[in-house]
């Protein structure tokens, strides 16, 4: 598996373009598991990135390759933006977020911001909760490197954070299949989310 240092995961953490398509290009079956999408309180980094407070929509997913979870992703947007520039997000369902973000010239992306996860805090708690809800038990110890970026459309911001599992160490991010060629179409199998509890 290898040690999940920033150096060993750097090709993934710094890979431009669609992460979902790069995972799909590995060719072993790419799956999206929607864990949560609904109203939630923003974390401090999300409030800073969105530049405002207010009711917000948060989406959390696990991305699987070959049946193994390799990325946990959390997206956040102000709720009012889902009635305008980001309204398609509410109907995205189990499709990858990349379906909305790439190929639209009106969407701009900030620079990638790599970061080592703190040992404690809201992100760690949310990650652990999602991992267990997905039936994966405790998150692996090497789950410590993340990146974030902000997508802007029509003046409204959408922050996306992605956390990389050590299972990706030593696996190039589909570069040979992507460089200079059109990306392959998604092969997406929808995995069931966690059962709903009482309201």
Automatic annotation (TrEMBL):
InterPro entries: Chorismate--pyruvate_lyase (IPR007440), Chorismate_lyase_/UTRA_dom_sf (IPR028978)
Family classification: Belongs to the UbiC family.
Lineage summary: Bacteria, Pseudomonadati, Pseudomonadota, Betaproteobacteria, Burkholderiales
Keywords for the protein's UniProt record, in alphabetical order: Cytoplasm, Lyase, Pyruvate, Ubiquinone biosynthesis
Binding-site residues, substrate: 59, 97, 162
The reaction(s) this protein catalyses: chorismate = 4-hydroxybenzoate + pyruvate
Ion transport as UniProt keyword: no
Protein name (record): Probable chorismate pyruvate-lyase
MF terms (GO), sorted A to Z: chorismate lyase activity
